[in-house]
Input
Amino acid sequence: MDNFMDKLAQKFNAGDLIKANSQAEAMEMQRMKEQMQQYDQLLQEMRKLNLKNVEIMNSVTQLTKESLDKVQLKDQEKEDLVAKIQETIEENYKKSELSFQKAEDFVHKENVKVYRNVQAALVEELKVQTEALTVRNEELTTKVRGLKPLLITTLCVASVLGLANIALFVLNQLGLLPF
Output
């Protein structure tokens, strides 16, 4: 490396080196200025973008707040609606309970009326049938009184025949009868 520097020093004299250094420094300075201008432009763009971001964030924040307010309003409306529905259900339940109670009372009253009507009809019919049976019983009693002597005679004859039958059976068993 020293060898290379020596050769370079031989080719260039001190003035040339200073001039080359100055040119290199000027070029470096120019490059740095250009780079600084680019950085300044980028910084300006970043500031603009940052301002836009702040504006957008403010808009997003505002929209989010409005959306949240709307959601809360909808939640409140939903809760109110649910409360109204529950009240309506409770009212309808109470009304249906009252209707069922009224219907049950009505049916009970009607059932009592029907029971009493049937009971009255049965009592009336029983009276009629009892009277008819009493009349028929009296008719039969009269007929039986007329048949009483015949019945006694029939029983006597049946008894005599029964005794005769027993006597014949006994005689037959004893072998006293020829048949």
In short: The helical segments are 2-11, 14-174. The chain has one domain: 2-174. The chain is about 95% helix and 0% strand. Residues 49 and 55 are 10 Å apart (CA to CA).
